[in-house]
């Protein structure tokens, strides 16, 4: 049927009579439905029909997940088994690179080609590892139920509930047992929520600390990416101190030595090269040399796939302070247990001797006349009261307070550019008495720039480089380009008018490269292509120089280039070039002149670097397995020139140093720079004062090393600056300081700093310039490499310790008061004034809300006005004992007065009087929380406006107390109070303020009040 005919029929519908329109409409719907069904069936058949290609037909596979020409199993086997035969079968390293579609010089396409990255991850996997399962909320709930006192309370609640319902019916009988159930539920819920949140926060910090930044080459550009973003085929740049991020093959480099002890357990370092051993394993460390590697396996496909997951931090580690508090909790708990047992015995004796009466004055026990259910109900009530006394007496909130304050401070420290790797470092830092700091990047900006250039004995101005002999400039350029671990990436500028340069490497390398490229017009690519490197001596902090032996392709000559600390390189030279290119002898007189030039630059806070060169004869070159080998010559060199590099002091570093000194913390600068540069920077930073006696304050590492052990111990306190020091000298100083009783914090960034970082009480590594070895050896990573952040860590460390002391004072006041009141009342009156539910509520105020309020106080300036705590000071100081005993005695006096005289004094019933006791006790804690904010200062309101969380918790506590008293009569066993009675409770609670103000004027002796609570660190 034609389309025209169909259209005519459809048109006729609009002209049809009304009686036929319904039938026509139905027909139209059926027809259209069949037409659509037919259309889709035809399309499916067309898709399924096989099409014969024409002779010119070409198949293009557009599947982005197409496989590479080598599989993962083969790649894994080659590296894991160190299988040279299979490697050779696939064309060697170049063949593997071709199979992985990798350019060994320019890397993979990278992030700009997302489909390539996606394909590599899909086929070879990602560089991630299974994380251990996080503890669920249910886990923390179950942990809370393991507390014996909680279980006893629940048993008491169940028995009380059963007997109560049997005796009074469901409507009235559930109150006592149900109230205990509800109170226990609230306590468990809040503590579980708190612990769950802190555990999650520690998990996040642990994951962040494992997120290492790796140098890779992608599309010819060197860049940093997360270790988790590494893919198979990536070309990774390795240098001393780096962690190998995945399994792979050596592509290019020199003098590479690897520490494989994390994998094999062997301490010997393994040489890695292109011919004999090109295999690199994930998790191993670079101890010498530099190289490029091509990644062949990532994540769980690597030989050491579980390595990264195994180094994740144990979030359950117990810090020294937590251990001390657990011991303190145990000691106080024993006292509480003894009191509770005594109360239990006394109450049971009074009950069974008929000395207890109910609300109507009738004896509760009448021998055999008393029902068994009544006896059991009373006994259960007595047991519940005794157990609740134990709950309140045991200060289990102390470890919770540590967890809270550590979690809070860690979060805040992260915002202040300090990442905590070990929890114990937070509290230990508060006791630090000495900080040994690096210079470069920590005290200075690490933004280096060449500001001076000397050829021979004459300075060369920036606009006068053309006056220097061209061949000498060529030699300097050659030395800069070939003797470096940095790189230069050239790209077209956004304006299109020229080129932009990107420099990578250490700050010193970048400064020299940018000077050579921008001032000397160095063409790095041409120079590197025009030479082949024979041997490399990599830079380390001990030698303070680096060298390269190379062969020029143009004339086939062999040359040695050295670069490093000026006085070190100068000692290796016997000749020098002047600016006109004339070669001259370097005699002792000229040597002194050069030394004066170096000292002059150093006195201006410049880092002085020298370049030297000489030609080597072919007879000194050996050939082994087709490779040229030779030692890099270290004497008889020709000095090419000197450069002075400026690295300005960081803004605010002088104030930070002064802040430490005011806090009684000594700051010592340990640097590899020469003594003149070190002295100039130390003076600029405030470590050395202008009028200070320099005798013994500034030493060189060699001098300190050569002292006898007795001399070192005698002189170490006076030393402020140690110049030209090696990592061994730094370690030696840390050991000396610790022997003298100092708590030592050390900053470090190099691989060789690892021993000193481990030996120190607090190891602080640098996040930007620090090697992975240094970071793993440290307790805290300073993310911005800034000394001011080190001072921030010190401030937070003191804050942690101070907050814990505040909470101890607050909680022990409640413990002492509650124990004394219940014990005296039980002995004299045969009953406890505070019921189980009321004591559980007080326990909640103390443990969770109190910890949250006091443990999250921010650091104040006052903390940096006091000397450090040190190793031997007791946790509970005499000042704290004075404060807590005064407040506890006041509370005991007030509450016992209400207990024995309250009804007669105020003319109230026993129920109202018991409510007055409970309400006054809670109000005393609320007001005493303000006193606990300041252990020594009388003005407890200073800085209160900044503690919004503290004020919020106080407000919540007061509101909940009003609800407990006024609206939860059955639950809390209370009576409503009138305005006058509320005013009385508030007045009695507020009296703790003037008492605290007066008490803080009472002097205390220096000797610890209770030696058995002076638990040493």
Automatic annotation (TrEMBL):
<keyword id="KW-0812">Transmembrane</keyword>
<dbReference type="Pfam" id="PF00122">
    <property type="entry name" value="E1-E2_ATPase"/>
</dbReference>
<feature type="domain" description="Cation-transporting P-type ATPase N-terminal">
    <location>
        <begin position="89"/>
        <end position="165"/>
    </location>
</feature>
<keyword id="KW-1278">Translocase</keyword>
<keyword id="KW-0460">Magnesium</keyword>
<dbReference type="GO" id="GO:0005388">
    <property type="term" value="F:P-type calcium transporter activity"/>
</dbReference>
<dbReference type="GO" id="GO:0005524">
    <property type="term" value="F:ATP binding"/>
</dbReference>
<keyword id="KW-0106">Calcium</keyword>
<dbReference type="InterPro" id="IPR023298">
    <property type="entry name" value="ATPase_P-typ_TM_dom_sf"/>
</dbReference>
<comment type="function">
    <text>This magnesium-dependent enzyme catalyzes the hydrolysis of ATP coupled with the translocation of calcium from the cytosol out of the cell or into organelles.</text>
</comment>
<keyword id="KW-0406">Ion transport</keyword>
<keyword id="KW-0007">Acetylation</keyword>
<feature type="transmembrane region" description="Helical">
    <location>
        <begin position="177"/>
        <end position="196"/>
    </location>
</feature>
<feature type="transmembrane region" description="Helical">
    <location>
        <begin position="386"/>
        <end position="409"/>
    </location>
</feature>
<feature type="transmembrane region" description="Helical">
    <location>
        <begin position="836"/>
        <end position="856"/>
    </location>
</feature>
<keyword id="KW-0813">Transport</keyword>
<dbReference type="InterPro" id="IPR023299">
    <property type="entry name" value="ATPase_P-typ_cyto_dom_N"/>
</dbReference>
<dbReference type="InterPro" id="IPR008250">
    <property type="entry name" value="ATPase_P-typ_transduc_dom_A_sf"/>
</dbReference>
<dbReference type="GO" id="GO:0016887">
    <property type="term" value="F:ATP hydrolysis activity"/>
</dbReference>
<comment type="function">
    <text>Catalyzes the hydrolysis of ATP coupled with the transport of calcium.</text>
</comment>
<dbReference type="GO" id="GO:0005886">
    <property type="term" value="C:plasma membrane"/>
</dbReference>
<protein>
    <recommendedName>
        <fullName>Calcium-transporting ATPase</fullName>
        <ecNumber>7.2.2.10</ecNumber>
    </recommendedName>
</protein>
<dbReference type="InterPro" id="IPR036412">
    <property type="entry name" value="HAD-like_sf"/>
</dbReference>
<keyword id="KW-0547">Nucleotide-binding</keyword>
<dbReference type="InterPro" id="IPR059000">
    <property type="entry name" value="ATPase_P-type_domA"/>
</dbReference>
<dbReference type="InterPro" id="IPR006068">
    <property type="entry name" value="ATPase_P-typ_cation-transptr_C"/>
</dbReference>
<dbReference type="InterPro" id="IPR006408">
    <property type="entry name" value="P-type_ATPase_IIB"/>
</dbReference>
<feature type="transmembrane region" description="Helical">
    <location>
        <begin position="949"/>
        <end position="967"/>
    </location>
</feature>
<keyword id="KW-0472">Membrane</keyword>
<dbReference type="Pfam" id="PF00690">
    <property type="entry name" value="Cation_ATPase_N"/>
</dbReference>
<keyword id="KW-1133">Transmembrane helix</keyword>
<dbReference type="InterPro" id="IPR023214">
    <property type="entry name" value="HAD_sf"/>
</dbReference>
<feature type="transmembrane region" description="Helical">
    <location>
        <begin position="979"/>
        <end position="999"/>
    </location>
</feature>
<keyword id="KW-0067">ATP-binding</keyword>
<dbReference type="Pfam" id="PF00689">
    <property type="entry name" value="Cation_ATPase_C"/>
</dbReference>
<dbReference type="Pfam" id="PF13246">
    <property type="entry name" value="Cation_ATPase"/>
</dbReference>
<dbReference type="InterPro" id="IPR004014">
    <property type="entry name" value="ATPase_P-typ_cation-transptr_N"/>
</dbReference>
<feature type="transmembrane region" description="Helical">
    <location>
        <begin position="144"/>
        <end position="165"/>
    </location>
</feature>
<comment type="similarity">
    <text>Belongs to the cation transport ATPase (P-type) (TC 3.A.3) family. Type IIB subfamily.</text>
</comment>
<dbReference type="GO" id="GO:0046872">
    <property type="term" value="F:metal ion binding"/>
</dbReference>
<dbReference type="InterPro" id="IPR001757">
    <property type="entry name" value="P_typ_ATPase"/>
</dbReference>
<dbReference type="InterPro" id="IPR018303">
    <property type="entry name" value="ATPase_P-typ_P_site"/>
</dbReference>
């Amino acid at each position: 049927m034609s389309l025209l005919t169909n259209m005519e029929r459809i048109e006729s519908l609009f002209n049809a009579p009304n009686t036929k329109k319904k039938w026509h409409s139905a027909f139209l719907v059926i027809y259209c439905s069949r037409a659509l069904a037919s259309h889709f069936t035809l399309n499916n058949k067309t898709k399924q029909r096989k099409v014969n290609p024409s002779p010119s037909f070409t198949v293009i596979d557009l599947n982005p997940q197409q496989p590479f020409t080598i599989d993962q199993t083969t790649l894994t086997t080659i590296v894991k088994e160190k299988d040279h035969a299979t490697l050779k079968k696939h064309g060697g390293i170049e063949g593997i690179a071709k199979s992985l579609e990798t350019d060994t010089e320019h890397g993979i396409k990278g992030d700009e080609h997302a489909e390539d990255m996606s394909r590599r991850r899909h086929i070879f996997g990602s560089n991630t590892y299974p994380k251990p399962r996080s503890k669920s909320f249910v886990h923390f709930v179950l942990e809370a139920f393991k507390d014996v006192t909680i279980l006893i309370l629940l048993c008491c609640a169940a028995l009380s509930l059963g007997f109560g319902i049997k005796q009074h019916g469901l409507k009235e009988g559930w109150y006592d047992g149900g109230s205990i159930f509800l109170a226990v539920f609230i306590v468990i819920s809040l503590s579980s929520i708190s612990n769950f949140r802190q555990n999650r926060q520690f998990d996040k910090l642990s994951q962040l600390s494992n997120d290492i930044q790796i140098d890779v080459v992608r599309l010819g550009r060197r860049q940093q990416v997360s270790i988790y973003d590494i893919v198979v085929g990536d070309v990774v740049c390795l240098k001393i101190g780096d962690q190998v991020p995945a399994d792979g093959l050596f592509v290019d480099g020199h003098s590479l030595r690897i520490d494989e002890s994390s994998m094999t357990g062997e301490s010997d370092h393994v040489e890695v090269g292109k011919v004999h051993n090109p295999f690199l394993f994930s998790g191993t460390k670079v101890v010498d040399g530099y190289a490029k590697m091509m990644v062949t396996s990532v994540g769980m496909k690597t030989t050491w796939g579980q390595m990264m997951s195994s180094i994740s931090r144990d979030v359950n580690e117990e810090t020294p302070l937590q251990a001390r508090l657990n011991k303190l909790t145990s000691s106080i708990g024993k006292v509480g247990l003894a009191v509770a047992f005594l109360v239990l015995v006394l109450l049971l004796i009074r009950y069974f001797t008929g000395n207890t009466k109910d609300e109507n004055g009738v004896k509760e026990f009448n021998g055999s006349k008393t029902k068994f259910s009544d006896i059991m109900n009373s006994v259960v009530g007595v047991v519940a009261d005794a157990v609740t006394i134990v709950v309140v007496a045991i200060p289990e909130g102390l470890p919770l307070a540590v967890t809270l304050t550590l979690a809070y401070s860690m979060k805040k420290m992260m915002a202040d550019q300090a990442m905590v790797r070990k929890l114990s470092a937070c509290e230990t830092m508060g006791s630090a008495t000495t900080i040994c700091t690096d210079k470069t990047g920590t005290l200075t900006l690490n933004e280096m720039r060449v500001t001076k250039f000397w050829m021979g004995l004459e300075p060369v101005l920036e606009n006068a480089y053309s006056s220097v002999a061209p061949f000498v400039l060529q030699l300097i350029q050659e030395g800069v380009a070939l003797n470096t671990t940095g790189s230069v990436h050239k790209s077209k500028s956004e304006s299109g008018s020229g080129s932009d340069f990107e420099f990578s490497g250490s700050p010193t390398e970048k400064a020299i490269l940018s000077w050579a490229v921008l001032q000397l017009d160095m063409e790095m690519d041409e120079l590197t292509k025009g030479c082949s490197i024979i041997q490399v001596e990599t830079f380390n902090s001990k030698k303070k120089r680096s060298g390269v032996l190379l062969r020029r392709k143009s004339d086939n000559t062999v040359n040695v280039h050295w670069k490093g600390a000026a006085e070190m390189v100068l000692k290796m030279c016997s000749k020098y070039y002047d600016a006109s290119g004339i070669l001259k002898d370097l005699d002792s007189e000229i040597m002194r002149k050069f030394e004066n030039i170096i000292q002059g630059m150093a006195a201006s806070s410049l880092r002085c670097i020298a370049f030297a060169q000489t030609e080597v004869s072919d007879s000194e070159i050996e050939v082994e397995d087709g490779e040229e080998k030779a030692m890099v010559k270290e004497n008889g060199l020709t000095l090419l020139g000197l450069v002075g590099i400026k690295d300005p002091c960081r803004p605010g570093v002088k104030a930070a140093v002064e802040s430490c000194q005011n806090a009684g913390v000594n700051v010592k600068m340990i640097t590899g720079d020469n003594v003149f540069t070190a002295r100039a920077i130390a003076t600029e930073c405030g470590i050395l004062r202008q009028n200070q006696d320099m005798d013994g304050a500034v030493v060189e590492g060699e001098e300190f090393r050569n002292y006898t052990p007795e001399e070192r111990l005698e002189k170490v306190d006076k030393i402020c600056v140690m110049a030209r020091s090696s990592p061994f000298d730094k370690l030696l100083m840390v050991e000396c300081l610790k022997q003298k009783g100092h708590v030592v914090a050390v900053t470090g960034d190099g691989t060789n700093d690892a021993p000193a970082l481990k030996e120190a009480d607090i190891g602080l590594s640098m996040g930007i310039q620090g090697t992975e070895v240094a970071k793993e050896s440290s307790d805290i990573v300073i993310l911005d490499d800034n000394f001011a952040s080190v001072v921030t860590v010190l401030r937070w460390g003191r804050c942690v310790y101070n907050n814990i002391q505040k909470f101890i004072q607050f909680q022990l006041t409640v413990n002492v008061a509650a124990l004394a009141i219940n014990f005296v009342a039980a002995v004299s009156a045969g009953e406890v004034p505070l019921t189980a539910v009321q004591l559980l509520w007080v326990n909640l105020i103390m443990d969770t809300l109190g910890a949250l309020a006091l443990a999250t106080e921010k650091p104040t300036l006052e903390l940096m006005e006091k000397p450090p705590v040190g190793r031997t000071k007791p946790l509970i100081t005499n000042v704290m004992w004075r404060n807590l005993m005064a407040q506890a005695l006041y509370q005991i006096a007030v509450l016992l007065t209400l207990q024995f005289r309250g009804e007669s004094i105020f003319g109230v019933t026993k129920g109202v009087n018991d409510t007055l006791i409970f309400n006054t006790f809670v109000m005393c804690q609320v007001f005493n929380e303000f006193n606990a904010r300041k252990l020594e200062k009388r003005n407890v309101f200073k800085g209160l406006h900044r503690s919004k969380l503290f004020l919020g918790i106080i407000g919540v506590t007061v509101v909940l107390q009003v609800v407990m008293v006024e609206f939860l009569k059955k639950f809390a066993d209370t009576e409503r109070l009138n305005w006058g009675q509320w005013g009385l409770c508030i007045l009695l609670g507020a009296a703790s303020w003037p008492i605290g103000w007066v008490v803080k004027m009472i002097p205390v002796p220096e000797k610890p009040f209770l030696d058995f609570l002076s638990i040493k660190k």
